[in-house]
């Protein structure tokens, strides 16, 4: 959309403003086509705040996607440079790999160098949604240590990211001076593990001032309206270990995010809510339901959740387990976790493993939620397996190259090429096909 779009006497800046007036935008039409829903259904869901379409007017290369529990579960990949890993080309390779494997969104979490270079390349060339966390860049862009940054510095960085075409921004608006007191009073095992949340806690602690993202929330809304930037209200108090899950700090912040959601929607700004974090499996459903109630059905964007704390090197698995359960109960956007979580910046292989783990989790959630067409490929795979049609199985696989590579690297003997090297002529499918066709079943 242009900065201000006029259709007849109707004027709007954002997808939400358009939807509230019954205007179906080009972006809504694309999302409707991708999701197999009517344009009117998408428009209605956007108007109600149940679906967001993050799509900055300056991100010209984007292929719009919708986020909401009535739609396919989307996945995000966190990438970006750091002081120890500052190769722009390597990060771009990861971006291309992530998008190729099915990531719907890339969050640029760069914390070193000229971050604007990487961000502008993303919004110029990447078809996926682009998200950022402006507080990271505030220190880098203004070249000031944290205690010397002003509220204006933070807001200027938000505007900079919006101008560069970022589709959604994470702003930790829910952590306030009251939260600082709570963190000190209600002793957590692992305190705050959100990087943005910890920076704001430190800034408030050092300056004695209120969180600028909370205090000047209306100014942030002005920027978001101008560029149609979607707000991802950050969970500064998300639990970083099982022991801190669903505590007073997390829930109190969520209540505040629900209040801010209403204010944003009134201004025509699209909103999604970020959530846990580390959490035992049996707590996930309740957290999804509480979020939906407190935040009036705003799309829920979760990191994992990670269902155990003791699997470094395998946290893509612990998080995908939690992500599947969260998605089944209403989370609509899953932030991937890689094997390098808690250990290092992910390399290309880590990115691949993280994306695939979360594609599986998202797909499993879609099947459980009954999303239209979600199980079609699974049913087709069953047909292909019944026929022992290996080419069809490869074509239906989430990662065809990997499936083919594994089978061909351990190929069966030539006299039973229709099976695999695990079962050979003991293959159950082969035996059943022959038995039901009244054929002789040769084993020896």
Automatic annotation (TrEMBL):
Keyword hit for 4Fe-4S: yes
Keyword check for S-adenosyl-L-methionine: yes
Note on how the cofactor is bound: Binds 1 [4Fe-4S] cluster per subunit. The cluster is coordinated with 3 cysteines and an exchangeable S-adenosyl-L-methionine.
Gene Ontology MF term list: 4 iron, 4 sulfur cluster binding; phosphomethylpyrimidine synthase activity; zinc ion binding
Gene Ontology cellular component terms for the protein in this record: cytosol
Keywords in alphabetical order: 4Fe-4S, Iron, Iron-sulfur, Lyase, Metal-binding, S-adenosyl-L-methionine, Thiamine biosynthesis, Zinc
A GO BP annotation: thiamine biosynthetic process
Name of the molecule in the record: Phosphomethylpyrimidine synthase
Organism, scientific name: Megasphaera micronuciformis F0359
Recorded name of the encoding gene: thiC
